[in-house]
Amino acid sequence: MKELTVIQQKIHEIRGQRVMLDFDLAELYGVETKQLKRQVRRNIERFEGDDFMFEVTNDEILKCQIGTSSWGGNRQGAFAFTEQGVAMLSSVLRSQQAIQINRGIIRAFVAMRHALSTMALPAKVAELEQSIEQLKLDIEDCLHDQNDINESTRAQLDAISTALAELQPPEPRPRRRIGFIQD
Fold first, then answer.
1. Per-residue confidence at 74, pLDDT binned at 50, 70, 90?
2. Is the same domain home to 47 and 127?
3. Distance CA 57, CA 34 (A)
4. Domain count, the chain
């Protein structure tokens, strides 16, 4: 069980696919990454197509926060192997350790797929959609109430302004000057 957890932590989602990266696989298989890549390149026809393997860009590696070298970047793009690609690796790497690890990796992928399928996703999505609709209705009600308050407040402010205008004394008439007036 501990082995499955360790393997599942090395499974990443890149480009919408669950994959394992070459350096993680090399560590599990007990080989150097360059040796694993060399074997893959020698048998590249087994890995043609993005459904088996693809090369990961540096940006994608940084988003996953994995795989930087000591000088701060990747010397070469990492290979990302899908579940089918990992299964195909068993035909390329033929050591006993590779076979045992490969079985564990396949079990980890299957366990993850099983866990995701039993999560009752459609029910959760429907529940979320219903909650969103309820929130929309609540927001509309709040905005409608706010408009009513604004209109009544505006009417009250107009009434206050009118009352204040009526209470103001009228403008004084201009007074005649006292004294000698020159034209």
1. very low
2. no
3. 17
4. 2
Residue 10 CB neighbour total at 10 angstroms: 17
Flag whether 79 is in a domain: yes
The boundaries of the domain holding residue 93 are 2-119
Q: Which residues contact 106 (CB under 8 A, 6 or more apart)?
A: 83, 86, 87
56 and 14 belong to one structural domain: yes
- Give the residues across from 19 on adjacent strands: 12
Spatial neighbors of 111 by CB under 8 A, at least 6 apart, are 4, 8
Closest CA to 57 of 67, 72, 43: 67
Question: Does one domain contain both 128 and 66?
Answer: no
Report pLDDT for 178: 77
What pLDDT, on the 0 to 100 scale, is given for residue 132? 92
Strand 17-21 vs strand 11-14: parallel, antiparallel, or unpaired? antiparallel
- Looking at residue 120, what is its pLDDT? 59
Residue 149 lies in a domain: yes
Each residue's pLDDT tens digit, 114-149: 877 776 567 777 888 899 999 999 988 888 887 777
What burial class does residue 82 get, using C-beta atoms within 10 Å of its C-beta: 0-12 exposed, 13-18 middle, 19+ buried? buried
pTM of the full predicted structure? 0.54
